[in-house]
Amino acid sequence: MNRMSNAVSVTTRGSITVVTLNRPDVRNAVDADTAQLLYDAFVSFDEDPNSRVAVFHGAHGHFCAGWDLQAGARLAQQGASTRDAFSGLNFSPAAYAQTGNGSAGPQGPMGPSRLILSKPVIAAVSGAAVAGGMELALWCDMRVMEDDAYFGVFCRRFGVPLIDGGTVRLPRLIGMGHAMDLILTGRKVEAPEALAMGLCNRVVPKGTALEAAVALAEQLAGFPQQTMLADRASAYAQWDMDLPHALHQEWERGKACIASGLEGAGRFAAGAGWHGKF
């Protein structure tokens, strides 16, 4: 199934949702309208009971070149301020408390960067994933990167700040030393280095990131979902907890899955999955 707009398309492949940026004239840079479309696409994915994993992809050889600076320049020419440009967005911590079951969140400048989803998203990174585009990739749970793709805080050159989670997710993902290098210098990070520092999870040949990410998504979709999602939620929730509270919340999430774990143990005892087979 396909749902199309000018800038964002949503395709479903069984239980996998593929969200694709499609603005080739600006290397998939995101303006305000596109940010709204991306936000809506991922909220819809999270609310779809038939979709288990999403793949985030950029068409025409690039993931995303960040915020559309041409659109920003037009706003500046019209006399618009930053407050005007993002007037509809609520960035306060209280906004997260309004999401009920925690499966949503407020909209960020790039769209979904402040969403807290209940299901995994995998980035299929080709070409440029820079500035806000890098921040969108960091928002995803995993990143599959083509061997000629690259990351970079390229907005450093123009005095544009990271406001879609880059200063938060980079240190958590790759450590403070690597993060400071990337944040302060804005330098280009190519696939081999990105893999070595943990910035991406897989490197694949040029032109294959989408299919590789879909294959990985299908693997995740094939696992018992309750347990996988409980473990995912626990890993995210533990960041700001001390060890006793982190271990307690892990138990609280995991104990609901014990029955399915015992059923899985029975399948293993009968021969399924021996010798590390998936």
Brief account:
The chain has helices at 32-47, 69-77, 82-85, 132-139, 166-174, 176-185, 191-197, 209-221, 225-237, 243-254, 258-269; strands spanning 2-4, 8-13, 16-21, 53-58, 121-125, 128-130, 142-146, 150-152, 189-190, 202-204. The protein is built from eleven helices and ten strands.
What do you see in this structure?
The protein has 278 residues and is α/β, with parallel strands linked by helices. It has helices at residues 32-47, 69-77, 82-85, 132-139, 166-174, 176-185, 191-197, 209-221, 225-237, 243-254, 258-269; strands at 2-4, 8-13, 16-21, 53-58, 121-125, 128-130, 142-146, 150-152, 189-190, 202-204. The strands form 2 sheets. Strands 1-2-3-4-5-7-10 form a 7-stranded mixed sheet, sandwiched between helices. The protein has a 3-stranded mixed sheet with strand order 6-8-9.
